From TrEMBL:
Primary gene name: Cnig_chr_V.g21090
GO BP of this protein: negative regulation of vulval development
Cross-referenced Pfam families: Lin-15B
Stretches assigned to the Lin-15A/B-like domain: 167-280
Protein name per its UniProtKB record: Lin-15A/B-like domain-containing protein
């Protein structure tokens, strides 16, 4: 009886063997991989929580985006002269009728006359102040007293505004610009090259060029420097700096002649060196 039981047990244990190629070969049974219950539970929780928080985050970002859009829109107004939308801190509210008359005549636009305020760029206000202070020719439909009154009303406000916003005046266009748009030019040769380009464009006279190069420290827009380079390239009929250096000295005589009307001691070699330095900058 005991032997039979033993044999049955042995047979049950050896049922994992099979006869193959004249011998018994053990057959390994692969058990399905089972994960502990706590791991399964953790995966379920992770999937659920990730989806939930992703939806919440998406909604939050959309809501914040909408708030930001509304805030940006509210803080901007349109300049009545250039018709550009700008932040309020770059604009001046114009209420006075005298200010409106001066601006409308200087910039040749029809500004709305009435009790409602309008907005104008600080740069436009600053340009009028600069022109009046420097006796630049302005429309004379308004009396000098009206012009001077404009300066008195706005000058101190413009100074405070530029100080807060880190804006400065470009000495080429006399417009208020962000400091990141300007570069200080200490080299007389580079100032000369910039002015040669401006004279070629017809934006400046020889007298204005002399005034510009007379001071060692001048702020100039990066855009004006590029415009001068492009204009000089166009005048010489070249497309790049390599062609510029191959250009005969005789072809540059016209540019040097312009420069000598500003400074009689300026030479062609100074021009080439200054132009190369400006191009590199």
């Amino acid at each position: 009886m005991n032997e039979a039981i033993v044999k049955e047990e042995v047979i049950e244990e050896t049922c994992n063997f099979t006869f193959k190629n004249g011998e018994y070969v053990e057959v390994k049974q692969e058990e399905p991989e089972q994960k502990p219950e706590y791991l399964l539970e953790k995966e379920i929780k992770t999937e659920t929580s990730d989806d939930f928080f992703e939806d919440v985050k998406s909604e939050a970002e959309e809501s914040y985006s909408e708030i930001e859009k509304v805030s940006t829109y509210v803080n901007k107004e349109k300049c009545e002269i250039c018709q550009k939308m700008m932040p309020r801190n770059s604009l001046k509210m114009i209420k006075c009728e005298g200010n409106r008359l001066v601006l409308s005549e200087v910039f040749n636009v029809e500004l709305f006359m009435g009790p409602n305020p309008i907005y104008v760029c600080h740069s436009h206000i600053q340009k009028v102040i600069h022109d009046i202070d420097n006796n630049v020719k302005l429309p004379r439909n308004q009396s000098d007293s009206v012009m001077r009154s404009f300066v008195r009303r706005n000058k101190h406000l413009m100074k405070a505004s530029h100080s807060r916003n880190y804006r400065r005046i470009c000495h080429v266009c006399h417009m208020s610009k962000d400091r990141s748009e300007l570069v200080q030019i200490f080299s007389k040769g580079i100032r000369m090259v910039v002015m040669i380009g401006c004279i070629l464009q017809g934006t400046h006279s020889v007298e204005q060029a002399r005034d510009y190069i007379a001071y060692n420290n001048r702020r100039t827009c990066y855009s004006h420097q590029k415009e001068s380079i492009d204009k000089i390239f166009e005048h010489l009929g070249v497309k790049n700096i390599q062609e510029f250096f191959k250009c005969p000295r005789l072809a540059m005589s016209g540019l040097v002649k312009i420069a000598r009307n500003i400074d009689s001691n300026f030479t062609v070699y100074q021009f080439i060196d200054a132009f190369n330095t400006l191009f590199s900058k």
